[in-house]
Amino acid sequence: MIARLRGTLLEKNPPQLLLEVGGVGYAVEAPMSTFYELPIVGSEVILQIHMLVREDAQLLYGFATEGERRLFRALIKTSGVGAKLGLAILSGSSSEEFARCIRQGDVKSLVRLPGIGKKTAERLIVEMRDRLDKELKDVTLLQEGSAVLNRPAESAAEQAISALLGLGYKATEAEKMVKKCAAEGLTTEEIIRQALKASLG
User: Fold this and answer.
1) β-bridge mates for residue 51, sequence order
2) CB atoms < 10 A from the CB of 27, how many?
3) For 67-103, what is each residue's pLDDT tens digit?
4) 185 located within any domain
5) pTM for this entry
6) Could you tell me which of 111, 128, 114 has the C-alpha nearest to residue 85?
7) Residues 7, 50, 4, CA angle at the centre, nearest 5°?
8) Which of 20, 118, 161, 185 holds its CA 20 to 30 A away from the CA of 107?
9) 160 and 178, same domain (yes or no)
10) Using one digit for the tens of pLDDT, what is the confidence trace for 174-186?
């Protein structure tokens, strides 16, 4: 099983990235919290990997920190939460904010995340409350950092919309979110970060 990758970052197209390790290109899906921390294309990066093996595919999920990976693994153990929804949760809120919602039973904030209805939010609160203390104890969870990526301003908004679609937002909703936040000179990650922050109020 692949647990860690160190190599050259070749592409960043949220929520996917391409990492070259020893001449082999690995397609990895990652939450936006990890994308915020990535350096420019061509730089060396290290990712903590969760590998999911299915009958029809072998999927890699990458995280900037061990704490983020452990939170993802705790999330997908929850009934009704798959890998895609786990990435959406990590993308839509910081680890600290998510933990606060769970500990305070804040259903209202959780249902604002893409793909989470009231029942799923309530299930997360019940099942994740103990896991936050047991599985994530003494782990420093990832905090949002600054994006470092230079892309043409005219394509950043389109890439942001594609990323939001990949996170589970509907096309009209994603376009509306990006339109409110897109401004000249902003990178894709900055637009996504502002759009997600605005959607969570």
Assistant:
1) 60
2) 12
3) 889 889 989 988 889 999 999 998 888 777 888 889 8
4) yes
5) 0.69
6) 114
7) 30
8) 161
9) yes
10) 788 888 876 767 8
